[in-house]
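Journal club prep — side note

Before the paper discussion, L.F. wants everyone to see what a predicted structure for a comparable chain looks like in token form. Sequence:
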Amino acid sequence: MVITMVYMSSVIVIERYNMTEQTNNKTEERKNRFSGESIKLTKEESIIHDRIFINELAATLEDKAAGVDGTSKLWDKVRKDINYFRQHNAEAYMVLLD
């Protein structure tokens, strides 16, 4: 089994400095996968949101291959990105991730 991941950390580091200027530029819509409720995010937030689910899938596949749940180091990246929303956009966290 081959796991291909797209990890955009360098984009986030560069763009994080511009985040305060772009807080009103919420053009990217994301939906809660369970409730269907949606919210607009900035481009940077949408990248972080998408990365949560990319890493969640890859971590799940790694755990399944290892035969033990929770062993993938990608879970730390998932938690880090979820914490980003808790700290910087609580409304989006409550709609999309809670």
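L.F.'s comment for the group: Confidence is low (pLDDT under 50) at residues 9-14. Keep this in mind when we get to the figures.
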